[in-house]
Design a protein that fits this description.
mainly alpha, globular, 0% strand, 211 residues
């Protein structure tokens, strides 16, 4: 059987659509796994005031989504994508950053507001961790894409990075008003999310430019 050319636009976009489907399916699977563990009593919503269940959800979602990207590539292009050590490191850095943001955000809410009602208090910042996961996974897709097939992944990466940027910008007003001592950790992580998103977009553009 002759492998499909990775430069074929139809195959490239089919891979992109399957990767998006894998992203959605991976979140459902990760959520189901966390719900099952919670039902069994193996995890709970609190552990020393830290939402470790949400952190595990983010990490599992990212790992499963990255695996889905590879699986979709194997299905469409009929060969496994080459994954280098640097690809895994960049993915893990993003996932660790997302987990850190989620944990610190909930810790900050507990300390300052005695609440975990994230959306009512912090608004779009509640979505920052999942947006960083999206950036990390789309960056992984850009880097492992077969020759000539990285453009759709780059577009997804740029959209996720723009979302991160908008969320970060929504916090600028609070920073200009002054950062209180208990808010420094969260402020630094929010800033790092913007740095990460910007850096990986540059990496992605370079990758697509190389073909």
């Amino acid at each position: 059987m002759t492998a499909r050319s990775p430069n074929a636009s139809a195959a490239t976009w089919i891979w992109a659509l399957l990767s998006v489907a894998a992203w959605i399916a991976s979140f459902i699977a990760a959520f189901g796994a966390m719900a099952a563990l919670g039902t069994l009593g193996w995890i709970g919503p609190d552990f020393g005031g830290v939402r470790h269940d949400l952190a595990l959800l983010l990490a599992l979602h990212g790992i499963l989504a990255a695996a889905g990207v590879l699986g979709a590539s194997r299905l469409v292009f009929e060969r496994w994508s080459v994954v280098r050590i640097a690809d895994g490191i960049i993915l893990l850095v993003g996932l660790c950053l997302a987990v850190a943001i989620e944990l610190v955000l909930h810790e900050w809410l507990e300390v300052r507001y005695r609440s975990n009602d994230t959306w009512d208090i912090v608004g779009p910042t509640a979505l920052l961790s999942i947006a960083v996961v999206a950036v990390a996974v789309s960056t992984f897709a850009v880097r492992v894409a077969p020759h000539g097939s990285a453009l759709p992944a780059l577009l997804a990466q740029v959209m996720a990075s723009v979302l991160v940027g908008l969320i970060v910008l929504s916090n600028v007003g609070g920073v200009l008003d002054g950062v209180e001592p208990e808010s420094w950790a969260l402020a630094v992580l929010v800033g790092l999310s913007a740095v990460y998103a910007t850096a990986v977009v540059l990496i992605g553009v370079r990758r697509v430019a190389r073909g």
